[in-house]
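Q: Structure tokens for this one, please.
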Amino acid sequence: MRKIISIILAIVVGAVLWYLFLKPQDYQVNFKAKAIPGTIFETVKAWNHGFDSVVPVDYISPSHFKQTILVNDSVYVYEWKIDQVHDSLCEVQVNIKDVDNSINNRLSVPFSDTDFEKGSRKRLLNFNSFLNEHLEGFNYSIEGEAEIFSSFCACVQIKTTPENKAKGMMANYNFLDGVLADNGVQLNGPPFVEVLDWDLENNSLSYNFCNPIIRSEKLPNHPDIEYKRIFSKNAIKAVYHGNYITSDRAWYAIIDYAKKNDIPIEKKPIEVFFNNPHVGGNELEWTTEIFMPIKETHE
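A: Here is the predicted structure, written as tokens:
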């Protein structure tokens, strides 16, 4: 009997020690979201800027990342884990830890509905509303395999964050267009972006912003403009409608499609823009064609 009591006490003590000191979260919130993991990840990044002091989201994958929230004098760590149920639904688990008051929270949570719990639920309800509002601002469709166009073009290379991609385009639109127009260069199609490097871990994006042109012997020589040819190749194509700021939501959808269909791809999309944001109008009527190159396999 004494041995059984000792084992039970050891289990109880072990459980208490685990709960107080080793359990990874003080509180957990679960909810469903009608979006894919990449869209949720990017929306968390945008939502993150609404807090008192912004700490960059700690990227592990689009389905698993950590967010540090500073509110007044409190520091919370939100660990997001997202399980994709199907193409338009995810189950989201958020493990929450109050960095400076973890033990107090763990002692209080089982016995009462604490301010910490109420604040956590309210914050994530706020996020869910933020996400739903965001989802109303765009839509996309995957069209399957297609061929990237071939074109000679004039390009400006830009390095920024993914969320500032459109800002970089806007900043260079008049510059590139003006230099080409002043020198009588004939345009040969809508502007496009060629992604060179998409680094999610460091939240950086390098790309060429380009205008297709008719090649001639008298192209202007400018240190910020590069001339190059885009060659035709196989790709997965999507059509996106919405503000160009958030067109990368379709990039994630293409990646999901490629994974599901076992298609090897290069995460260097090309986006073709058919509307001029300077003109304004209904953003849901803006059209972007997106091509994610398929890796060439050599047998």
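A few notes: The domain at 140-293 is CATH 3.20.80.10 (Multidrug-efflux Transporter 1 Regulator Bmrr; Chain A). The helical segments are 2-22, 37-48, 102-108, 115-135, 165-182, 248-260.
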